[in-house]
């Protein structure tokens, strides 16, 4: 599997995306998935859609970027985190 590129986004690319990005990094490391996890603002997602394999956003995003967008609030709250993890892993392993 080629190295995956994931962008974790929130409103300011500071607080919630940092927490979510750390959990995503930990998950991918535990699953042995080679990945680059970056943080950005939701307003910047469009500029990364051509290079990313998936987006994880801590706010709901309804725009279609042509790649999987995983709702990342569960990585902050812990509620339904397993479902979010499974959705991300499935998005990264489907090609």
From TrEMBL:
For this protein, the record's InterPro entries field holds: PTS_EIIB-like_sf, PTS_EIIB_2, PTS_EIIB_2/3
Which example biological process does GO assign this protein?
phosphoenolpyruvate-dependent sugar phosphotransferase system
Q: Which SUPFAM superfamilies match?
A: PTS system IIB component-like (SSF52794)
Which residues are listed as membrane-spanning?
none
Ranges of residues in domain PTS EIIB type-2: 4-95
Q: Which UniProt keywords apply?
A: Transferase
Q: Respond yes or no to whether keyword Transferase is given for this record.
A: yes
List the Gene Ontology MF annotations in alphabetical order: protein-N(PI)-phosphohistidine-sugar phosphotransferase activity
Taken from the record, one Pfam family name reads PTS_IIB
Going by the entry's taxonomy, the superkingdom of the source organism is recorded as: Bacteria
Q: What name is this protein filed under?
A: PTS galactitol transporter subunit IIB
Taxonomic source organism: Suicoccus acidiformans
Q: What is the lineage of its organism?
A: Bacteria, Bacillati, Bacillota, Bacilli, Lactobacillales
